[in-house]
């Protein structure tokens, strides 16, 4: 089998899981095997939705997340299914434990892949390297653990039937105990999964000016991003930081407002399909990477953009 790690928010599968399913189905077809899913949860999970996307579904409720527990759960599912490949969405959480899974399975680890295919008993893939400036071709012999970079793969549709559900008995690994968790309330679309990202830089001038960024993002059905300078200034939370030391995004549309275009920021967004930049400095580096640029004050341009979008929506 090919095993898919199904990430979710407790109520529904995440977009990244549907991308991973598409990749897993292609590998399974090439190998002539079935697709199984593993659904791990702290409390609740979208079992009924997950059953419609795989042929066998392994589930386990493990309590508060730790890398040790999630690695043990995925490993148990991989052993139960006899998986030749494990496919998962690329995320910080999955990156924290999938290396352990690959080591235990004596499998190759291909991370943040843009595509993948089976060729001569090996899995070939491409991924970005050197701050996303080059494309790197990689391969690994089976078994393999592979992660799928967000917004690179079509979303999987449900299958015609419903999978058998198998409850896993995952051994306890009490090396780390979660004593307390402070979780920020999430609003809107997930940054890494968003098809449209609106990012504000230091050029916005103040934290209050980000209300315009939020409004434009909401109108477009997108997510709000921020540069490191903005986060370091305490204007926005780290969860919104885009760049080398933040999140890497690859949306269809990336709107950079008051963003200068430092190389560290470009590393997190330069593979966006279309980049629109607004900056009052005509020499700002961001314009060298933008498909469309507006030289002007964000405090004048952004309200005009908001009104234009509202007019189109009406």
UniProtKB/TrEMBL annotation:
Provenance organism: Thermus composti
Pfam families: ETF, ETF_alpha
Protein family membership: Belongs to the ETF alpha-subunit/FixB family.
Gene3D superfamilies: HUPs, TPP-binding domain
PANTHER family, per the entry: ELECTRON TRANSFER FLAVOPROTEIN ALPHA, ELECTRON TRANSFER FLAVOPROTEIN SUBUNIT ALPHA, MITOCHONDRIAL
InterPro entries the record matches: DHS-like_NAD/FAD-binding_dom (IPR029035), ETF_a/b_N (IPR014730), ETF_a/FixB (IPR001308), ETF_asu_C (IPR014731), ETF_asu_C_CS (IPR018206), Rossmann-like_a/b/a_fold (IPR014729)
PROSITE patterns: ETF_ALPHA
Full protein name: Electron transfer flavoprotein subunit alpha/FixB family protein
Lineage: superkingdom: Bacteria
Keywords: Electron transport, FAD, Flavoprotein, Transport
Domain Electron transfer flavoprotein alpha/beta-subunit N-terminal: 2-185
